[in-house]
Amino acid sequence: MPMSIVTERGSCTKLPSENWTSGQTAAGTIHRHSRALPLSHSQLCSLVVFVLFSCACQLPSTTPQGQGASRSDPWTAAMGNLCCCVQVDQSTVAIREQFGKFDGVLEPGCHCMPWFVGKRVAGHLTLRLQQLDVRCETKTKDNVFVNVVASIQYRALAGKASDAFYKLSNTRSQIQAYVFDVIRASVPKLHLDDAFEQKDEIAKAVEEELEKAMSAYGFEIVQTLIVDIEPDEHVKRAMNEINAAARLRAAANEKAEAEKIVQIKRAEGEAEAKYLSGLGIARQRQAIVDGLRDSVLGFSVNVPGTTAKDVMDMVLITQYFDTMKEIGASSKASSVFIPHGPGAVRDIATQIRDGLLQGSSVTQH
């Protein structure tokens, strides 16, 4: 229907309703004291619904940063607030305020929330276990820079939900600051190798400090783990080279020890072989002497008038010619000079006899 607008001059200009809804106006500004526009019953109802819905849309909760809460669907929240109802999910609590003041904690489920008396949901707080990974750079006692990675598992306490919601604006930053403080106070007291060995002690120190600090804010530290200690790449390469050199040195020692054992066993084998060879030669010579003695005795008995000296000379002559035969058969390019006359046998026998007599005299003295 047409509507009237009063201009500065006091004249009244009529505009069609479609022009009014599209935002068009007549020339001039609207006078402050113009009379109210007449509205129909349907338009009035629509305006009331629009105002109520706008108020309800301004009531959905806001969640402080770092609390780990999630927003619900704005349309669902608006309709719930419009109906004075609010839903809290499982493993989550809601913080209720009345005119900006804390009024209570809402457990999971459906709750009545009369927004028209100033009550609203200020935010949600999750009770689930959360994990924060913190990477801290520090220096060891032997001046090696390392990156220590700590994993913090924490959760909010339902009995202290108001403290967890209001006392901290950023829980993760607060935990990270405490982790930095403890790690940078503990690791510089240790050498690099000791830091790897005492990871559990470092984690325990971090957990104790966090437990004392965060319990006042309504949070529980479930577990603290030192998941990794990362030295610089050059330091890791040097450590690997040191380890490799130590293993090579140990391998060289083991190899030398093995060669030593082989040589000792070889020498023992050669000594045993020579000992057995000597026993064989001694037995051989003993057998030869026994055979010669039997031959001399038998020859003396069978040939009357012969002496033992004659028999020995004959045996030496026989061995002398056997030796010359073997030398002539086995000698190829070498030249061997030996006495070849018959008198040489007598000289050899004399030399052997003199040597035996000298050995007997030395043994007796």
Automatic annotation (TrEMBL):
As recorded in UniProt, coiled-coil segments are 192-268
Region Disordered: list its residue ranges.
1-20
- Enumerate the spans annotated as Band domain: 83-243
UniProt entry tagged with the keyword Signal: no
* Matching InterPro entries: Band7/mec-2_domain, Band_7, Band_7/SPFH_dom_sf
The record's listing under Gene3D superfamilies reads: Band 7 domain
Q: What SUPFAM superfamilies does this protein's entry cite?
A: Band 7/SPFH domain (SSF117892)
Keywords of the record: Coiled coil, Lipoprotein, Myristate
The yes or no answer to whether the keyword DNA damage is present is: no
Task: Say what the protein does.
Answer: Positive regulator of hypersensitive response (HR)-like cell death. May be involved in potassium ion channel regulation.
What protein is this chain from? Band 7 domain-containing protein
Specify the species.
Answer: Sorghum bicolor (Sorghum)
Source organism lineage?
Eukaryota, Viridiplantae, Streptophyta, Embryophyta, Tracheophyta
